[in-house]
Specification:
Layout (H helix, E strand, L loop, with lengths): L13 E3 L20 E11 L10 E4 L2 E4 L4 E2 L7 E2 L4 E3 L2 H5 L25 E9 L9 E9 L31 E10 L7 E7 L17 E13 L2 E8 L13 H6 L3 E7 L11 E3 L4 E4 L28 E10 L4 E9 L8 E7 L17 E5 L5 E7 L4 H5 L6 E2 L2 E8 L4 E11 L1
Parallel strand pairs: 10-12, 17-22
Antiparallel strand pairs: 1-2, 2-24, 3-4, 4-7, 5-6, 5-8, 8-9, 9-10, 10-11, 12-13, 13-14, 14-15, 15-16, 17-18, 18-19, 19-20, 21-23, 23-24
């Protein structure tokens, strides 16, 4: 990957205050909401000691916190990966400090032969949902980001799945290599994460929505859905994800960048938890009025999280970028609201030096427009001269956080902020975040 120069910007104690007035989102919230205040507290650098290229999937299995970073599977551009491993410990600091040599490789399903049903391409675990009906805590569902190319998933006219290697855009490397397409799937473990079975796809965008040459020159994706974060509310698992495809059938002659940008980039879908054992075709995307669009259909992104054109917003296929991506969502017990962190792309190859934060006061995401009621993103941190990805809030090594078994999906008044310096290839924490009501 292309390297990016310049040093870290000096950053001390930052304080961000929010407006006291009620802000309305599109769609509007059902009640007034005073946006929480937050501050960054600079700390000693806390290095995560293994490869991270995704959201941090973690779960408590009994009194053991377990995390699943890394990548696994076939990839003709970057090579076959076997980095999806797990580490365990009695608290977050212990787990995050685990040396890479002590990580354990779980048993994962093999890639299927090209043209045959099964797992294709590489996967990253982005969220782990723990089955509440299993008192042992060992039944887990991993929501994974999956990437393919026309080489690993060629087009099948009978199913409509796969990609046609014609006018295909360039990908992330400096070499002449193709762009990937991302999908989202589900794996299951019944032994606490030691072994996994592939259960099928959660969401995907198909060939007609791929954005091709000559318009797609971003060196990101050809299209698809990915970089997810999932939370359970009631009988549903709600999926927050990046939408990178065209919101309709792509045609080079009639392509409109404003239309593309209007259909991107952070969207929401949901699936019944009881369907996770056989997910394909069961999920529904938000379509503007409800969760009505098909799992492989066209939904609508969260309007309040889109970047207006006058503020630098643009389509994912543009070399200038201009969109939020990589959501990481958690429920905050202290604030009694949802918190979302996200990145911002501002150029080719996922360039961006800023991270943002947004809030949603509605615990019940399935009621009315609650799932869409996110506040306008506020700047959380900026590192000029660097490329920063995958922000997440993580529990601290405190008696309270351990007793509550906090993870990146549920947290309290204070949390540790991690993110990846992509240009340095390092995942680390420089700050704690403290919230105020």
């Amino acid at each position: 990957m292309k390297s990016f120069l310049l040093a870290l910007a000096a950053s001390a104690f930052l304080l961000f205050s929010c407006q006291n007035k009620t802000e309305k989102t599109e769609p509007p919230t059902a009640e007034s909401f005073e946006i929480p205040k937050f501050r960054l507290i600079e700390t000693d650098t806390f290095h995560f000691n293994n490869f991270v290229d995704c959201n941090m999937a973690e779960v408590w299995v009994g009194d053991t916190l377990r995390i699943f970073p890394g990548k696994y599977g076939e990839d003709p551009v970057w090579g076959f990966a076997e980095d999806l491993k797990f580490a365990s410990g009695s608290n977050a600091d212990e787990v995050f400090s685990t040396p890479a040599s002590e990580y354990i490789a779980p048993k994962l399903p093999k890639n299927a032969t090209v043209g045959q049903p099964g797992l294709h391409g590489a996967v990253w675990f982005e969220t782990v949902y723990q089955d509440s009906k299993d008192p042992s805590g060992r039944t887990l569902y991993a929501i994974y980001h999956n990437e393919n190319y026309p080489e690993t998933l060629p087009y099948n006219p009978e199913t409509g799945e796969g990609y046609i290697d014609k006018d295909w855009p360039l990908g992330l490397t400096e070499r002449i290599t193709p762009a990937a397409v991302c999908r989202i799937g589900v794996m299951k473990s019944t032994d606490g994460g030691w072994s996994w079975d592939n259960k099928g796809l959660f969401l995907e965008d198909k060939q007609p929505r791929m954005i091709l040459k000559p318009h797609n020159i971003s060196k990101t994706f050809a299209g698809g859905v990915g970089d997810p974060s999932a939370v359970a509310v009631g009988e549903y698992l709600y999926l927050f994800y990046g939408e990178y495809g065209y919101p309709g059938v792509f045609d080079a002659a009639s392509y409109d960048p404003l239309v593309e940008a209007g259909g991107q980039c952070i969207s929401i879908a949901r699936i019944k938890i009881t369907d996770l054992d056989d997910p394909q075709g069961k999920a529904k995307r938000w379509d503007g009025t409800g969760f009505n669009a098909a799992w492989d259909g066209i939904g609508k992104p969260v309007a309040s999280l889109q970047i207006p054109a006058e503020e630098g917003g643009g389509p994912a296929s543009s070399p200038q970028g201009g969109f939020h991506w990589g959501p990481s969502v958690s429920w905050n017990d202290y604030l009694e609201c949802w918190v979302m962190l996200m990145g911002r792309v501002e150029g080719q190859s996922w360039i961006g030096d800023k991270l943002y934060i947004s809030f949603n006061p509605h615990k019940e995401l399935g009621e009315g427009n609650n799932s869409q009621a996110w506040t306008k993103p506020q700047l959380l941190v900026q590192k000029p001269g660097h490329v920063i990805w995958y922000p997440s809030l993580q529990p601290l090594n405190t008696p309270e956080d351990v007793a509550n078994k906090y993870t990146s999906l549920r947290l309290g008044k204070k949390a540790r902020l991690f993110f990846k310096f992509s240009d340095l290839g390092k995942y680390m924490s420089l700050y704690e975040v403290e919230f105020e009501k």
